[in-house]
Amino acid sequence: MADTQKINLLDLSMDQLTHLVMAWGEPRFRAAQIWRWIYHTLTDDPGEMGNLPAGLRQRLLEETEILHLPVVATSEADDGLTEKVAFQTQDGQLVETVLMRYTNRNTVCVSSQIGCPVGCTFCATGRGGFVRDLTTGEITAQVLHFAQRLQRENAHVTNIVFMGMGEPMLNFDAVWQSVLNLNDRQGLALGIRRFTISTVGIVPGIERLAREGLAVGLAVSLHSPDDRMRNQLIPVNRRYPLARLMDAVRLYIERTGRRVTFEYAMADGVNDSDEQAQATARLLHGLLAHVNLIPMNYVEGAAFQPSSRERVLRFQEILVQAGIQTTVRVTRGADIQAACGQLRSLLADEQEG
Ligand code: SAH
Ligand code: SF4
Fold first, then answer.
1. Which end of the chain is less crowded, N or C, counting CB atoms within 10 A of the terminal residue's CB?
2. How far apart, in whole angstroms, are the C-alpha atoms of residue 245 and residue 256?
3. CATH of domain 71-352
4. Ligand 1 centre from 313 Cα, in Å?
5. How does pLDDT run across 278-336, given as a tens digit for each residue?
6. How far away, in angstroms, is 297 Cα from ligand 1 center?
7. pTM for this one?
8. Could you state, in order of their start, the residue ranges of all structural domains in the chain?
């Protein structure tokens, strides 16, 4: 059978895997065994699945694959604490993923799409256009790559953030299935609270997240407290203006009880004034919220420059005085173009070079 027709086991839910093995005449518990090999032992070779009968191993080898994506480039920053990997998909597209090591956690920043259809003006991914959604297996493979890496050091992936390339809420099904697969107790068993989905504000996605009833973390890329400015920065704000966005956020908080993070990338002279800080405080008043201020990373061709440190601290002061928890995010990986919104531009450079 040609490779292209093989079933990628990383695309399947536990239920689907169970159906597959049962359709092959195997007992149900074989699915759990296979699952454990893939997501707990972290093997990608069915030949190693020692507790399976030889016939089943053979069939897995012939008809399925555990599709890890080949690494085509890696780079490090922050003294090796940040590492970016570029993977190649089977159709020759590049996907970037970043591992950030902290004292008590290892966070993987995953991509959900190749490019992004939203087209935010300040974002390298958005400026590069949209190619396609990633599959569940392609999203999962990004995490498993680093899980295997850390396993060799006796360490683990502890957190996952959907802050790489793409808008996760526009690829909800694949993103959600990868969350469920990585959360499954019989495998990687990553706690549901350790996932964070970052969205530009796709209202139906936030509502769906609220309805799922699992306390996956939510980060909203706010970047401006008023619709006029936000329309300019984030075209999709015309479709989902702030009033609707905030209603969806309130629903999420009500259903999950979790605090929402608002990302605010500050561009010099654009969205960083005292008035905008006050308006942001009013918008978020009384909400279970946390603001993350980030100086906007310069992206080639974009008209934005990062706000000064002084401006960022002043903005923070206004929010804090208004009772809104606010941190200034230390950007990781700026020198390897691994920081937010920079992923796609470097890839394009590499491909052209
Ligand atoms: N599409 C999702 C998640 C991917 S982008 C979203 O927009 O939320 C991850 C984060 O990087 C978002 O908060 C996004 O606004 C931010 N970002 C994009 N370009 C940036 C830039 N040039 N500087 C700083 N942050 C940027
Ligand atoms: Fe897409 Fe997010 Fe970039 Fe906007 S900021 S273009 S939504 S990846």
1. C
2. 17
3. 3.20.20.70
4. 20
5. 999 999 999 999 999 999 988 888 889 999 999 999 999 999 999 999 999 766 666 65
6. 9
7. 0.94
8. 7-65, 71-352
